[in-house]
Amino acid sequence: VGFVAAAGRVKSQFSWSMRPACTRTADRCPELLGMRAMNVVSHITQGDVGILTIEQARLLDDSSLHGVQKQLLELLDSIEEKKIVVDFRLVDFVSSAGLGMLIRIKKRCTDDGKALRICSLEPTVAETIHITGLDQLFQINEDAAQAILAFESGG
Known about the structure:
Elements: H1 2-13, H2 33-36, E1 41-46, E2 49-54, E3 58-59, H3 62-78, E4 83-87, E5 93-94, H4 96-111, E6 115-119, H5 123-131, E7 139-141, H6 144-152
Helix pairs in contact: 3-4
């Protein structure tokens, strides 16, 4: 019930996100030029663990998720690490579309033989993941340091 109420509140506060996405390309839409190079996911390596930090606060709909998912998948394809942590410390809301993206990331990691952990979930994000039962699918840690320790201990 809390998730539905939160989703309704977000929908009314962010009604602009319900508009159809611009279908113009960056070549014909100058305001999109800067968006092409915008990084919404950062990557650092700590030992043999790749830490991918999502740097977008709200994972709401297809238009806001497209860049995040694209960069996550590109990084997963390009990095050598087989132990991956996706850090959510800057994310304060995840919609059902965001949860779908997270499941696709998990599938890609599994297909590529990579172990995945998620960490630093804000309470609203943790509650959403718990309510949907996805906490049974993902290994969740308090922060990146705890995720790395869990990998080192064989977990």
